[in-house]
Design a protein that fits this description.
Layout lengths: L9 H8 L5 H14 L7 H18 L5 H17 L3 H14 L3 H6 L12 E5 L9 H5 L5 E2 L14 E2 L9 H5 L5 E5 L9
Antiparallel strand pairs: 1-4, 2-3
Helix pairs in contact: 1-2, 2-3, 2-5, 3-4, 3-5, 4-5
The structure holds iron/sulfur cluster (3 copies).
One iron/sulfur cluster (SF4) binds next to helix 8.
Length: 196
């Protein structure tokens, strides 16, 4: 006899969400898992609210968030707390409101992820003045996002190491192997790091 499927609890999704990056990413993870699992669709504020919340959160994580998204998220969450039929919907609205209190949502509208976890809002960059042209970063990059060539004895010209942002998947492998700390993680909006 097959065992009945174990019910996914809202509290368990919330616990898992705490390890999923910044508060906006956590909320997006939470509503996505809630939609896929415990959300039954029996009442409008929770069913429609969670769908719309996911779209608004995707905008913020993707670097396209606006003040309209923030206002919509506040409205949706408050309606869920007030009018959802059961505790699952009320808790979901409360969790989103709690995460919004951090101020990090506003930062995303301004194009910054303070925790540096939203790929659309960050960039890895090489500081030319620190780079010793060892090539370790290029060797470790599985996405072929780093160009440049190692310095060769008796050869004066060489291609400096640089990250091609369009290819970079923000995996972070390069930063951990650089022996001289020449790779930095910055806001995508930030000006070029100064060479030192
Ligand atoms: S609040 Fe409860 S009853 Fe309403 S859709 Fe959400 S899970 Fe279902
Ligand atoms: S963050 Fe990852 S994908 Fe981007 S350049 Fe570094 S190793 Fe390559
Ligand atoms: S690992 Fe660091 S020092 Fe070596 S090439 Fe890359 S950025 Fe330059």
């Amino acid at each position: 006899m097959t065992e009945p499927a174990k019910e996914i609890k809202v509290e368990d999704i919330k616990t898992a969400a705490e390890g999923k990056g910044c508060p906006v990413s956590r909320a997006l993870y939470f509503v996505t898992e809630f939609l896929a699992g415990p959300m039954c669709g029996r009442c409008f504020p929770c069913a429609m609210g969670t769908y719309e919340a996911r779209i608004r959160l995707q905008n913020l994580v993707g670097g396209k968030g606006t003040e309209d998204d923030l206002a919509a998220l506040r409205r949706i969450s408050s309606d869920m707390v007030e009018a959802s039929f059961c505790k699952k919907g009320k808790d979901t609205g409360k969790f989103i409101l709690d995460w919004m209190e951090t101020g990090v949502y506003q930062e995303h509208v301004a194009g910054r992820c303070p925790d540096k976890t939203c790929a659309a809002l960050i960039e890895y960059r090489i500081i030319p003045g620190r780079c010793i042209n060892c090539g370790d970063c290029k060797d470790v990059c599985k996405d072929f996002a780093i160009q440049g060539e190692k310095k060769k004895p008796m050869k004066s010209g060489y291609l400096p190491f640089e990250i091609r942002q369009k290819r970079c998947t923000r995996c972070g492998n390069c930063i951990s192997v650089c022996p001289v700390g020449a790779i930095v993680l910055v806001d995508a909006l930030a000006a070029e790091p100064v060479g030192v």
